[in-house]
Amino acid sequence: MHVEQIYTGCLAHAAYYLESKGEAAIFDPLREVDPYIARANKDNAKIKYVFETHFHADFVSGHLDLKKKTGAQIVFGPTAKPGYEAIVAKDGQIFEVGDYKVKVIHTPGHTMESTTYLLIDDKGQEHGIITGDTLFIGDVGRPDLAQHVVSELTEEKLAGHLFDSLRNKIMPLDDHLIVYPNHGAGSACGKMMSKETTDTLGHQKKVNYALRADMTKDEFIKELLTGLTRPPGYFPQNVLMNIKGYESLDTIKERGEKPLSPRAFEVAANETDALMLDTRTPMDFARGFIPNSINIGLKGNFAQWVGEMIPDIKQQILLITYPGQEEEAITRLSRVGYDHTIGYLEGGFDAWKKAGKEYETVGRIDVNEFEETYKREKPVVIDIRKKSEFDSEHVVDAINVPLNDINENLSRFPKDKSFVLYCAGGYRSMVAASILKQRGWDNFVDVIEGFDEIKKTSVEKTDYICPTTLL
């Protein structure tokens, strides 16, 4: 059976391409649809359907642009109420793609419209299941997201629905079926997903905690809800975009790909409420940046951190990128609904500097300097990593302020004494540094390459790295 997983690592997202006899289907596409169209053209195939497993929270789907550009029909599972023309399928309904069949299996729980698609080959044999966020490899979808859109859908109610869906719809299926989930490790849609992106259902029944055969519903709900972290703030806004509709990516790119000279960029920054977003590496940002700009590097989980750190998806954005990366930045912003880029700095930061414009820097120290400073001065040390990372191991006496909580915890950053920032590898701490600089802090340094380097070079020489078990 011709099934192809199209995986995008920075979002830990998997879309799927199915083709038979010149007909194709796309499952859970990302916002930019040209790669899917090109893939179908390679097979001389026409995209017949765009299947959506649910209204996604962590990205804006490309179903509307695919329909517009190819004429494909959009398919949702039962109970979905899209604000545009689409097929709302019945449980058990079968769609034909060439000689293949796609059977709708309604599996509410992650959301109420969540649907699994059973793939049946040209010989009538069941091949696999495209599970969306119902079943991951090693995990299942979190049931606490829909309540941020529909308040009466509590996480307990949805967890109960998910238990029933798994036991009554998924687990009775044959063990040989291949599980094709929507996400892998790194996605915020689950809590303990595997790095593997496919597996057999039979193996998942053996190793996935949520599929344990002797688990009661109450045990399932308790275990599923334990340890859930706060979902990113942009999730409900993405859900609404996927329900109601959105502008074409072509329109967004046309609006955003507007080159601005240093002078025009400065005028735009002063005369609008646009946020200046610098997407360069932490190292280059630290060496020089436009005052009041925020650093979230493209070489990292860019879209996810934009979603975490910029509360309003309608925020206007002015981009500072390396020359030639403007389109990539605009596209990756649009994946999570940030559609209001209004221009970019032509020539990048180098053009700004050559124009004699004011710029700032971030102080940084390497691990040897950190070790010496730590021993000599015992400075305030602030760890920007997630609580789970901090709880596992951290510098003794460090204060934990996770990056996604920084705006609510600015009072924990001293203004009357110097302090040191670190994260795991330097990416998140530079995001934090840029925010602190914007808010008026200038009395800190950042550790180059972060805790990973501190631990690697210093753990055998000092005792200042403290595992939780020793606290």
UniProtKB/TrEMBL annotation:
One of its GO terms (molecular function) is metal ion binding. Keywords: Metal-binding. PANTHER family: PERSULFIDE DIOXYGENASE ETHE1, PERSULFIDE DIOXYGENASE ETHE1, MITOCHONDRIAL. Residues 270-361, 375-463 form the Rhodanese domain. SMART domains: Lactamase_B, RHOD. This is MBL fold metallo-hydrolase. InterPro entries: Metallo-B-lactamas (IPR001279), Mito_Persulfide_Diox (IPR051682), POD-like_MBL-fold (IPR044528), Rhodanese-like_dom (IPR001763), Rhodanese-like_dom_sf (IPR036873), RibonucZ/Hydroxyglut_hydro (IPR036866). Pfam families: Lactamase_B (PF00753), Rhodanese (PF00581). PROSITE patterns: RHODANESE_3 (PS50206). GO terms for biological process: glutathione metabolic process; hydrogen sulfide metabolic process. The keyword Zinc does not apply.
